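The instructor's notes for this session suggest beginning with a concrete chain rather than abstract definitions. Hand out the sequence below and ask the class to guess, before any prediction is shown, which regions might be ordered.
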Amino acid sequence: MKRLVVLISGYGSNLQAILDACQRGELPAQVVAVISNKADAFGLQRAIDAGVPAIPLPFCRDLHFDRAGYDEVLAEVIEQYQPDLIICAGWMRILSPPFVRRFAGKVINLHPALPGAFPGTRSIEAAYQAFQRGEIQHTGVMVHYVDEGVDTGPVIATREVPIYPTDTLKDLEERIHQAEHELLVAAIREVIEKHG
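After discussion, reveal the predicted structure:
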């Protein structure tokens, strides 16, 4: 049974997809901790409801000084749970190079765009606008290993998501989130099966 630590920043619907898949036996894994960089993230309540340690770890300049300082604290908290995998599921902070090196090959990220397209934040909105301008016909989601770039690590899995002329941004967001839930669980299973 693989040990998962999940990093979140908000509502936690992707976390819920992982928790549900573990409970149904679709993933040979258990979530051993959920950490949020926002103290009021609803995803923390999802963890509590599932009986999983829920850890708010908001960034505080007085305590952490900078990104590297915060990541050092984050890494110390994570290591207490001895995870096999660290899942960034809506985690809205870029992880520093020392953190990435410390957990090399163990950190995977879900990103609501296809490889090489729309890195960073607001990816769904960027894809929607590009479609409106006639620059793309579809978008997608990917799960990838985290490296020292932004959404540039080795790709584990992708899924195309159509955009329709009648779509509002909300329509596209909902379709992407549905694809994310399915792809994230499938990608975690693939990584676990590949590495035993």
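Then share the key points. Residues 2-195 form a domain with the Rossmann fold fold (CATH 3.40.50.170). Residues 169-195 form the longest helix (27 residues).
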